[in-house]
Design a protein that fits this description.
alpha+beta, 37% helix
C-alpha cells in the first residue's frame, strides 16, 4: 500500500491503539511552492520565530496544524534541517557550536559536517499536522514514545524484513538524526531528544523520537497488529524478577519438546 492509499486517520487510530501513545503522531510535509501553505485552512503560522522542536510539540500536544518558511524559524540551524536554509560560516566553521557543546572548533566543524540535513534548494515551505485528521499525504511521520513503545516499533519494523537497525546521535540538534536521516536515507530513524528539544520543545525525560518513511508506515502498522495477536503488546506485562521464566518461554518456543542432537 502506497502513501497515497493510506487513510491516515485510521492509521493513527490503530497506531495509538497498539502503542497507547501519549501524544499525536505528526505528519511532516515539504513544499516547493510557498503558496501551498494557503491550501490548508487550518494551518497556523507562528506569531513569532520558534524552533522546529517547539512547532512539533505544538502539533503533537495542542493538536494544531502549523507551517511556515525559513524566516518563521528561530535559527538557520532549524531551517537547514528542513532544507530551507544554508548555513553561514559562523556555524560551519564550528565557532557557534564550540561556544558550548564541543571543546574545539575542529570538532564542532566536524559535527556540523556530519549532521544530516534535507538538501537545500528544492523546498521553500513546510507544514506539520496531526496525522489523525488526514491533513495531507506526509513526507514522513514523527512519533514520540517511551523506550518500551519504541522497542515494539523496532520489532514491527523488523518483523517481515529483518535487518540490524542502526541509529545515530549527534548530541545537540537531534532533529537532524530523526528528520534529516529519515528523509534523506528513507529509513526509520530513532534518536534521543537533545537538550534543546527538552528545554524548548518540552520533550519529556522518558521520550524518544522516531521518524518513519511513509512507504513503511502501512507495513509497520500491519506488523504491530500481527505481533499484538501473538501477545506482544504494550504495556508490556511483567512476569516476576524472582520466578523462573522457563514455563513462559516454553509455552511460546516449545523448549521442552526439543531433543538434544
Amino acid at each position: 500500500m502506497g502513501a497515497q492509499d493510506i487513510k491516515w486517520s485510521a492509521w493513527t487510530r490503530d497506531m495509538e491503539k497498539f502503542l497507547r501513545l501519549r501524544t499525536f503522531p505528526v505528519g511532516l510535509k515539504l513544499y516547493e511552492n510557498v503558496d501551498a501553505l494557503q491550501e490548508n485552512k487550518w494551518l497556523r503560522r507562528p506569531q513569532e520565530k520558534l524552533s522546529l522542536c517547539q512547532l512539533i510539540t505544538i502539533v503533537r500536544t495542542f493538536d494544531w496544524t502549523v507551517g511556515g518558511v525559513a524566516d518563521d524559524l528561530v535559527t538557520q540551524g532549524c531551517a537547514s534541517v528542513l532544507g530551507l536554509s544554508e548555513l553561514t560560516d559562523f556555524v560551519t566553521s564550528g565557532e557557534m557550536r564550540s561556544k558550548v557543546w564541543l571543546e574545539s572548533r575542529d570538532d564542532a566543524a566536524e559535527c556540523e559536517r556530519v549532521i544530516q540535513r534535507i538538501p537545500f534548494g528544492k523546498y521553500k515551505a513546510f507544514s506539520l499536522a496531526p496525522t489523525a485528521y488526514d491533513p495531507f499525504v506526509p513526507d514522513m511521520v514523527l512519533i514520540y514514545g517511551n523506550a518500551a513503545q519504541m522497542s515494539l516499533l523496532v520489532n514491527a519494523i523488523q518483523y517481515d524484513k529483518f535487518e540490524r537497525l542502526t541509529f545515530f546521535s549527534v548530541g545537540e540538534t537531534s532533529c537532524s538524526d530523526v528528520i534529516g536521516r529519515c528523509f534523506v536515507d528513507q529509513v526509520p530513524a530513532l534518536s534521543i531528544p537533545c537538550y534543546g528539544e527538552r528545554r524548548f520543545g518540552h520533550a519529556a525525560d522518558d521520550e524518544l523520537a522516531i521518524g518513519l518513511p511513509v512507504r513503511d508506515c502501512a507495513r509497520i502498522l500491519r506488523n504491530l497488529e500481527t505481533l499484538y495477536k501473538k501477545g506482544i503488546r504494550y504495556p508490556i506485562s511483567q512476569y516476576g524478577a524472582q520466578v523462573s521464566p522457563f514455563a513462559a518461554l516454553d509455552a511460546v518456543y516449545g523448549f521442552s519438546g526439543q531433543t538434544e542432537k
